[in-house]
Here is the input.
Amino acid sequence: MCSAEDQRFRTTSLHLASYLLARDLELLGREPVEDRPGTYVFVFRDRADRLEAANAFLTGKGGPVDVHLFLEAQRRLKNLVHESPP
Here is the structure.
């Protein structure tokens, strides 16, 4: 049986995180990277289509999202990073 931890996807990439957020993956929050002050990991609830979506983004082969959704997701993530520490 999978633990709750196994159902999470983490990335330090603002662009990938913005893309996934624009594709309606649920953002659970952020976590600091211990050995890199000021760097955060974005944590999402994983789902079955996340790997396909991430591959589409990373290879540039499919999965377009509305630019307004992408920019709004990016703004939301930047605001999250600039909030007080978790």
